Amino acid sequence: MLGELIIFSSIWMDSGWLSLALLALSVMLISSKQVSPFAWVLFFVMGCLVQTFTLKMLDPGKVEYVGYVSKGGTGRIEASNGRLLRDGEWIYLPPAVNIDLSDRKAVAFPGQIVWSAGRLKRSDTYPLLTIESEVEGCIDRFEIISLPGKHIAGLLSKYELDNTIAAAVFTGDRKHIEYELRRTISDLGIAHLFAVSGLHVGLMYLLVHSALSFLMVGRNSRIIASISLLFLYTLSTGPAISALRTFLMLLCYSIFRIIDYRQHPLNILGLSGMIIVMVQPSIVASISFQLSFFATAALLIFLPEIEKKSLIYQAFLVGAIAQAAIVPLSLTAFGTLSLVGIPLTILMVPMFVMPSYIGMIAILVSDFLGIEVVSSFISGSLRTMSNIMGKVTASIGEAIPAMRFEAFPAYFISLLVLFLSFIAFWHLGHKP
Fold first, then answer.
1. Cβ(231)–Cβ(208) below 8 Å
2. What is the DSSP string of 399-432?
3. Pair 212, 225: CB distance under 8 Å
4. Predicted local confidence at residue 432, as pLDDT
5. What is the pTM of this model?
6. What DSSP element (H or E) covers 206?
7. CATH fold for domain 61-141
8. What ranges do the domains of the chain cover?
9. Distance between CA atoms of residues 52 and 48, nearest Å
10. Strands 76-86 and 89-93
């Protein structure tokens, strides 16, 4: 990842590569007792080469693009492994590309093939290229890949849940929520609750695994069935980066469990990250990728201490550690800091997120069984709960606005938080 970031910053940006090079050297020296310098340099060079071969420098202009939808959505989608027509020549373009659809209400699903004609723009954030589409079209490649997203979108429309934040909790698509409410949610530091994250994927895995245990299904069969259903759910979410990361972690964990090969959770996290960046090297520039892995790594580092506490204290620690871990990134990227993010996360998970999630699953099951009266009743409850939660969130946002910082104070506070984190790691026996 350090190799990929250095190449990315040296090619795509005017500065930043020198500090990353110094960071890479420091990490290699600090970890020299645990990791062979030869192995370290081998992976570092591999990252540099992969990023060099995949990163494309393209100037803005009129283009045509054909690729595979890797992240679906409404109005804006993400495609990758495509080809770009420029000056009569087709250019292979493996990195992800954002496509702003001409029809802002149009929906595309993962696995579809998308064709778009429009204007290409460059961006400093992931995806690094954006196409402002003037005309586009989508066709199915493998129906099974796009089927979960289509089915859930159809159910949401059928039961009038499209514009609710309960639906955003389940699908991760917040584009139907009003702009002001979306902004308030982000400023309060609780956006991760209204998008599919590791919490949601883990909860789905737990529910499916528990249900199969109740049905007396064998261990290995239970693991395989849980992972298969989880794969379909992850596809239906976009897939979101945090959902994909959690799915890969559970997949690796399940494989190691089946072959009875124990691994430390941090190794599983690292393996999942390596798989993602090997498939899509430019994703290292994604703030969502960085936030997801920073928060998860911090939780896994402090996991032994968290497990010693009571259940209520565990809930507080999980929220506090995850939020503290992403403060440096969120401050430097967005310049905002919320004082109520942690308590709101602790309160809203049991009061809104879990009821919404379980309610959506109940709608899926009852509709599949043909009991539409149950689905209609639950959908009405979810609409009411979403309206109440939207008004409460807006009121809290007005009463306790987020703190906003200029670039230098934000950078200084980020460094201070990192320094305090290193002290905490050292105090708990972890070497930085």
1. no
2. HSPPEE--HHHHHHHHHHHHHHHHHHHHHTT---
3. yes
4. 44
5. 0.69
6. helix 198-214
7. OB fold (Dihydrolipoamide Acetyltransferase, E2P) (2.40.50)
8. 2-54, 61-141, 151-427
9. 6
10. antiparallel
Distances (CA, A) of 19 to 13, 41, 152, 269, 354: 13, 18, 45, 25, 42
Q: Is the peptide bond before 127 cis (omega within 30 degrees of 0)?
A: yes
In contact, 322 and 315? CB cutoff 8 Å:
no
The residues that bridge with 61 in the sheet, in sequence order, are: 120
pLDDT < 70 stretches in the chain: 11-20, 30, 32, 54-57, 124, 141-146, 172-176, 192, 194-200, 236-238, 311-312, 315, 422, 424-432
Q: What letter would DSSP give residue 125? A: S
Instruction: Please tell me the distance from the alpha carbon of residue 95 to that of residue 272, in angstroms, as a whole number.
Output: 19
How far, rounded to the nearest angstrom, does the alpha carbon of residue 323 sit from its chain's CA centroid? 15
Residue 424 has φ and ψ, to the nearest 5°, of -65, -45
332 φ, ψ (degrees, to nearest 5): -70, -30
242-253 tens-digit pLDDT: 778 888 888 888
Can you list the alpha helix ranges (DSSP code H) found in 237-340? Answer: 241-258, 265-279, 287-301, 303-306, 311-334
Quick count: other Cβ atoms within 10 Å of Cβ 409? 12
Phi, psi of 404 (to 5 degrees): -115, 140
Dihedral sign, Cα of residue 326, residue 79, residue 150, residue 365: negative
Residues in CB range of 310: below 8 A, 6 or more apart: none
What's the Cα-to-Cα distance from 206 to each of 209, 250, 317, 359, 369, rounded to whole Å? 5, 11, 21, 16, 22
